[in-house]
Pecanex-like protein (Heterocephalus glaber), 1050 residues
Amino acid sequence: MSPDVPLLNDYKQDFFLKRLPQTILGGPRLKLGYCAPPYIYVNQIILFLMPWVLGGIGTVLYQLGILEDYYTAALSGGLMLVAALVIQFTSIKAKTKSVTVERILTRDILAEEDEHEFTSCASAETVRFLIPGKKYIANTVFHSVLAGLVCGLGTWYLLPSRITWLYGCTGGTVTLFIFGWITLCIGEYSLIVNTPTETAAFQTQDTYEITPLMRPLYIFFFVSVDLAHRLIKNTPALQHMNQILHILFIFLPFLWAFGTLPPPDALFLWAMEQVLEFGLGGSSMSTHLRLLVMFIISTGTAVTSYFIPSTVGKQAKLLRAGIVRRILLTLVSPFAMIAFLSLDNSLQRLHSVSVSIGFTRAFRMVTCILQVWQNTENALLETAIVSALHLLISSKDLWWNRNLNTGMRLLLVGIIRDRLIQFISKLQFAITVLLASWKEKKQHRTTTTTLCILNVIFFPFVLVIIVFSTLLSSPLLPLFTLPVFLVGFPRPTRSWPGAVGTAACVCEDTIYYDQMVPRLTAALQTAMAGGCLGLLLPGSHYLGRFQDRLIWIMILERGYTYCCINIKGLELQETSCHTAEARTVDEIFEGAFEQEYSKVCSLNEHFGNVLTPCTILPVKLYSDARNVLSGIIDSHENLKSFKGDLIKVLVFILLQYCSKRPSKQNFHKTESKGETSLIVLPPSSCPRSPEDTHSFNSQTFNDWSDDIFDDEPTVQKGKNRLNDLPGTTIHLPGSVDSQKIDNLSTGTISENSLYKAVMLGYPAIDKGKQGSMAYISLTEFSSLHSHLVSLPEEWRSSCVPNSRMKEMSSLFPEEWYQFVLSQLECFHSEMASAALEEISKDKVLKDFYVHTVMTCYFGLLGIDNMVPTPGHILRVYGGVLPWSSALDWLTIKPELFQLALKAFRYTLKLMVDKASLGPTEDFEALNSCLEEYESDWYIGLVSDEKWKEAVLQEKPCLFSLGYDPNMGVYTGRVLTLQEELIQVGKLNTEAVRGQWANLSWELLYATNDDEERYSIQAHPLLLRNLTVQAAEPPLGYPIYSSEPLPVCQC
């Protein structure tokens, strides 16, 4: 990676510098991309200061003793409500007006987003620019009412006398009053005038206009504490909190601008998760609906436990476990903890909120509630710590024994345990980012040295940021993944708002992950039960590696003996960044699982990497092998052998197909020797033979005209002959409509009308000028059983000149034909042996096969019977055949076309196998090989739908032919279904959350979607590129994402 890779492109820098002041001030656009009239700025300043003016009226009246404080709040709130309604309805009226104005030209393309046309200070366009308005009428009213409440309560909150009473300092009162009103004005402007783009972006689209509620929501929180203090007097703790929050209130604009405070939807989900996990002993849930339902049920349980008597039941159905670890965790430990908790004297006074919540959490973690036991490992550790402290701290005067009961001790220890784990992970992540910026040459920038020095000098402040992020359980955000750390806003464990598994960048390679996931889930079940993946916590991330595949596994939910996971598949077409990080992953796993160390104590070469190897999982999946076919497909001897093998494979395919056809109703059967079995040759719809005409199909000719005999293919994309087959009828000059003759369907042709069919090779004759028509005589089988393997009637015609057909009939392998007949399943019984002998002597049947096989042969290789070139083989393998009369004959018979194409592909695979494994010794070996192709192989194109079906059906083997234009070589791809080993490692959870938080900020706020941006480049320690790929679309681009998958650990 070049050190000159920009953090933001030049055109995005200007855009970002315009957006940032707007975010800080709550919506006023004081920095535009063009020169706007002065009244635009004056109007915005007036609207910004309007709440302060209206609140100031009430404040002056209160300070003069004219109004009480609550009347002051009501007056200011009422004035703000009226003003808000006037502003909103003015915006609605402006939207209905249209004016003619002069356009202002701008130089920057991105400025088009800000470009507006103004004629006066009160014009419709000016109003639309200043006040965009709301999308919904309900929000127009609701936000206006909310603005009145914010202004009224804010006036009450910032009364000078109240601030002076809290602090007793005039200077502090002035400072808090001025900057406090600036905070209120910012909140009001974003609510009713113009909502800015927030740095704390959680949703990609604000469908229901939730973002305007963000800033007023936090203002209400601060005011609510003051109201509680007014109502509940003589409470020192509440007074101290009120004093602290008044000071923190003036810093709210900076917390909003830095994205530290979450938007309402993220705050709601995060708060429910934290209460459910620590207050009620639950787990993070895999979906928002499950989270809400579990929160309601758990809260109901806590409330119910407030009224239960002082007895404790022990109730659970024991499940068998195969290993000692599972027995200890699922059976012994829970009951041991229940026994410990049952002995606590706090149970005798259950009627207190703290004991109720604490014991609900404890019993929720160890007893059977809602048929699950939660977090047994964590509960065991916390119970052991509380028990040890109980033994060590004997003094009853210490606050630990005096003020806390066992339930609250468990709650406190649980929170400390969780936050301590987060702090260690965040500290490791921060150190990794800092050290990587210094020692990795590819990560060096001109500012690297300065940033590293500043981090060392101000390390205590960096530590405070990490601690603050840990307390909030929010991600530590490295800006542009540089050692510049910010506190991200708290968000749910899943990090993304959408449902899991509903979006992915689907491509051809998605199908391989689709096949693998069920078997991988089963392997993960065994690994989790054995503890191979370590402590399973919601939000944990794991990375799996096999050949060119990278699997991202996330724990969504954790309960008693089960967890819910999401599996993502990353792209297989590796970019340079992807390849660099994948190589690092391979080295880490190789060092852990394959490399042998001679020394007893060896240093970890990958110390500081976010990936820690865990285990190897045996999974049955497709192994992908790609080979270069140089020396095989371009060998003259192999190509000559290919011609003879093609005829044999055609015979095999057609005989197999005809013997297994389910319906024979189109064949005439006889029941006595006196009746004759007549086989009618239907009229052919082929054009005249090449000996009589030179008509051709232009599209096919274009694919073949430039280099028919060249070794290098020039197949054009989108010109696959197979796409035109279903339901297609080709009409060429001189041809006969295959569907109707003299307005009669071929299926109902009478015997007399058979002689009216036009014989192929003769020019078309205008209606009314028809002379005597040539006809094809009727033919009969010599065996009564030939219909068992006879060809469909529509296949028995021929469009190849008789002279050419007789000449090439000598190539037909009669012995092979007889051998394949004898191997058909329908003739394996003793009673069928006589029928087989009769059929093998039926010359008419054999002639039909000769004509059909050789016509298909001409259609595939051309009527000149020349040795095919590698380019020819590649094109025909892909379904693009050279034009000939035989091709048009095949085209109107889609089923036969597919069989001929399958035979061609089988022949190619046979040629490759013979070149690599040796020639087939006899007919028995050749037949076995072809039968194996039929049963265990799919041979075709990767882009075929049948290829995907074969993968999902778990066909044992798949083969495809390709061409690499960069290297100029022909390639073969073989997929083999077998048990392989997937290497799995655990990722630093906080490193993933931090990089995803930066990705969300960078794309949703800074709109930095440059594919070559710095924050997406390869990083061997952070695995930055892979982490970005694994994010939820549209920010990330995994090619596969599963729905939440339950995994039982029993």
User: Anything to note?
Assistant: The longest strand covers residues 969-987. DSSP finds 34 helices and 15 strands in the chain.
